[in-house]
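Late entry, written up from scratch paper. The run itself happened at the end of the previous shift, but nothing got recorded in the book at the time, so transcribing now.
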Amino acid sequence: MDDIPPRILSTAPESNATRVSRATRLSFTFSEPLNRKSFEDAIFITPNPARSEDDAELQFKWRGKTVDVILPDSLREQRTYVVTVGTGVRDRRGV
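Output as recorded:
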């Protein structure tokens, strides 16, 4: 029985990266395939990179254990962004 929750194995850009491209796409690779909705509900970016509330939606491209997060707009210059993946992320079995 699987009782080990998924772990993040790698991110791009890396944690604490500076001077990233303003057109950055975020990428996360996990230890196992995820319940997609659990990840999509658990990711938060502060401040919101969208220029308006109408464009606030993130898009997701899934490839096995990797998900690319496509931002609604380019990042603003000279700004610090914090990306948080909450504890609600589950694997396909709900762990």
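The two ends are 10 Å apart (CA to CA).
(Scratch paper discarded after transcription.)
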